[in-house]
């Protein structure tokens, strides 16, 4: 009989995985920086999937962890009366106004190998931060950028009930079914689309028309600007 005992990852396996994720983060940042460098002034001022933020605010937010020390973040959080959302919104708007678009793109490229990680989630969450915010920009602008499969799979494998809850996604009664990768999540009425679009849904985003298919698609449709 075949031995089906689950084996815990070895230290070597964990190290290899960590190295692969670091490489994925660096590549993602450099590629997004190149995308930003090619945008027009009109595109930099266009809305994104992050409610209330234009491309320039999202770009500024993506590099905050590279530019702010821990003590400065603590001071900003105190000034925002403990609200992380209020702090990040204020910092993004201020930094977007205080830096040129060339600088905002360079912050990503120049810090491709920066070890920053979100407060929770570890290194995979750092990759998620870059990928999701990059999609917030490219999907909203209608750019045909496909996140490489290896990066998507790292994030898709991490989607669970806690992820959905943390990002405020309402997936009750909805089953996500990717039509370009072998991936699904949840139970209920099927909602299909590209894996990267469904990843956005799992992270609480609403998408422009034409990205999702199924009886539930209008439920996850972004409001027209």
Q: Could you list some keywords that capture this structure?
A:
225 residues; alpha+beta; 4 strands; 6% strand; globular; disordered N terminus
Can you characterise this structure?
Strand 1 and strand 2 form a beta hairpin. The chain has 11 helices and 4 strands. Residues 1-6 have low confidence and may be disordered. The protein has a 4-stranded mixed beta sheet with strand order 2-1-3-4. It is globular. With 225 residues, the protein is of the alpha+beta class. It is 53% helix and 6% strand.
Alpha-beta classification? alpha+beta
Helix share, percent: 40-55%
Shape: globular
- Ends distance: 60 Å
Global mean pLDDT:
94
Strand order of the largest sheet: 2-1-3-4
- The poorly predicted ranges are 1-6
Main sheet properties: 4 strands, mixed
In DSSP terms, counting alpha (H) and pi (I) runs of 4 or more, how many helices?
A: 11
Radius of gyration from CA coordinates: 18 Å
Which strand-content bin applies to the residues? Answer: 5-15%
Q: H/E order of the elements?
A: HHHHHHHHHHEEEHE
Oligomer: single chain
User: How many DSSP E strands?
Assistant: 4
SSE layout and pairings?
Layout: H1 11-37, H2 41-44, H3 55-62, H4 64-67, H5 70-79, H6 84-98, H7 101-110, H8 122-141, H9 149-156, H10 161-166, E1 174-178, E2 184-185, E3 189-193, H11 195-202, E4 212-213
Parallel strand pairs: 1-3
Antiparallel strand pairs: 1-2, 3-4
Quick summary of this structure?
The protein has helices spanning 11-37, 41-44, 55-62, 64-67, 70-79, 84-98, 101-110, 122-141, 149-156, 161-166, 195-202, and strands at 174-178, 184-185, 189-193, 212-213. With 225 residues, the protein is of the alpha+beta class.
